[in-house]
Amino acid sequence: MSLNVIDLIKGQLGPALVSQAASQFGESESGISKAIGGLLPAVVGGLANNADNPGVVDAITKASSSGILGNLLGGSSNNSIITTLLSSIFGDKVGGLVNSIASFSGISNNSAGSLLNLVTGATVGTVGKYAADNNLGASGISSLLNDQKGIISSLLPAGLSLASFGLGAENWFGQAKETVSSVTSTAKDNIAEGVATARENVSEGAREIREQFENNNNNQGGGSIWKWLLPLLLVIAAGYFLWKQCEKKQTTTTTATSDSTKAGSGTDTASVSGTATATPAPATAKTDENIDLNGVMLKGYKGGMEDQMIAFLKSGGYKNAADDSALKDKWYDFDHVNFKIGKANELEAGSQGQLDNLVAILKAFPDAKVKIGGYTDKTGDEAKNLKLSKERAEYIKAALAKAGVGAQVLEADGYGSKFAKVDAKASDAERAADRKMAVRFAK
Q1: Which of 290, 293, 262, 291 shows the shortest CA–CA distance to 276?
Q2: What percent of the chain has pLDDT over 90?
Q3: 409-414 and 369-375 strand pairing
Q4: Is residue 64 a contact partner of residue 187, using CB atoms and an 8 Å limit?
Q5: Distance between CA atoms of 75 and 128, rounded to whole angstroms?
Q6: Which pLDDT tens digit goes with each residue over 261-283?
Q7: What one-character-per-residue DSSP string does 84-136 give?
Q8: Can you give the pLDDT at residue 270?
Q9: Coil, helix or strand for 332?
Q10: Residue 391 burial (C-beta neighbours within 10 Å; 0-12, 13-18, 19+)
Q11: What pLDDT does residue 271 have?
């Protein structure tokens, strides 16, 4: 499964930045959050559509060392890298994009324009840092961006589309459209050619039959069998040739459509009507949505960690729990918080956003207490697994304390592979479900 760079970038656009931006621009936090939710896939889509543009790739490479990520609110508006990049990927459609986002989120055009610069800065800065950390050259960056094309449309929030920005799919991923148009044109040419060939064959057959008919009439007189057999043979000949030609051209068109789909892998494709069985649409990717925390919108999965924890707190479940034993069996897995392989003090990019969300939840419910748990899969030395999972849980506890909610984190513990369910011989992708961090309420 290809990396979703939007998940990386969200770590730079958490609740703290939303709050600061709302204060600086004089807008509501919900409006700022909504605007960012629309701008982020739009910007990533613009970069993906220009993945092979040397200027775009060069800007991303330079962004990793430009300090953009360290000053998103103050250094994005007049940054030459961002200004040039926006012109390259959107051209004269920047104004339309800003207007659409402003209308969608209920903020001013000025604020929407500033947020476009901010989100673009966060995007190129994050992608540039990821590229630098993983030693990706220009081709690696292009490949990473190209991988995003298939998911951009599905990540746009409800009420927005590429067309609403004046950036229809044909403008972004024109290659797929050109491929389908080419197949359609070829199919039309083939069918027209088939019909013409059939006509010629039928005419030739009719001529031969007519000549035979005339010869027989001359030899046998007007009562010949050909008087009634001729029309029947004409009908049979016409039907046969038309059937064979249509069968041949339909096969040709179906093959062309299949080949174009293969060539267009990773982009939106369409088949020529009536020539091939449509393939089922891929399952919609799981995407972040707005989770309401007492009027403040957090970004998280519907039914994910934040959503479940807030619902439990609002329901009075924590308040009414008699003691810790009533809470100990319900853990909430982090959806986005991941450590680098073998590390206990280095988070993967994109993890900070969910830690910020947990901080916001604890501050909104200051009476709530939690415990952090770390887990590993069944591979490796168990003593080392226990140590690693414990250190990771302690790292998150320390991060929460640094954010001002340390008093609400009662404990951090590591369980190694004690609760792992996937066999050690399973694939790494399958075992990933056991490598996780989780949180539960405690008393």
Answers
A1: 262
A2: 28
A3: parallel
A4: no
A5: 17
A6: 333 333 333 333 333 333 444 44
A7: HHHHHHHGGGHHHHHHHHHHHHT--HHHHHHHHHHHHHHHHHHHHHHHHHTT-
A8: 34
A9: strand
A10: middle
A11: 32
Contact of 313 with 361, CB cutoff 8 Å = yes
Query: 116: buried, middle or exposed (CB in 10 Å: 19+, 13-18, 0-12)?
Result: buried
DSSP-derived letter for residue 342 is T
- CA–chain centroid gap for 36, Å, is 16
Question: Residue 432 pLDDT more than 80?
Answer: yes
Element (H, E) at 333: strand 332-333
Residue 14, classed as helix, strand or coil, is coil
Q: What is the C-alpha to C-alpha distance for residues 123 and 140, in angstroms, rounded to an integer?
A: 16
In the chain, how many H helices and how many E strands?
A: 18, 6
Instruction: Give the mean model confidence (pLDDT) for residues 409-428.
Output: 93
Q: CA dist 407 to 351, 371, 394, 410, Å?
A: 22, 11, 14, 7
pLDDT confidence bin for 434, thresholds 50/70/90: very high
Quick check: 253 and 180 in contact, CB under 8 A?
no
* 369 neighbors 324 (Cβ within 8 angstroms): no
Given a cut of 70, is residue 158 above it in pLDDT?
Answer: no
For the question of whether the overall pTM of this predicted structure is more than 0.90, the answer is: no
Query: Alpha-carbon distance 315 to 237, whole Å?
Result: 78
Long-range contacts of 74-83 (CB under 8 A, 24+ apart): 75/121, 76/114, 76/117, 76/118, 76/120, 76/121, 77/114, 77/117, 79/117, 79/121, 81/124, 82/117, 82/120, 82/121, 82/124, 83/117
| Single-letter amino acid code for the residue at 329 | D
Cβ-in-10-Å burial (0-12, 13-18, 19+) of 221 comes to: exposed
Burial tier of 327 (Cβ tally within 10 Å: 0-12, 13-18, 19+): buried
Residues 42/97, Cβ–Cβ less than 8 Å: yes
On whether the CB atoms of residues 437 and 374 are closer than 8 A, the answer is yes
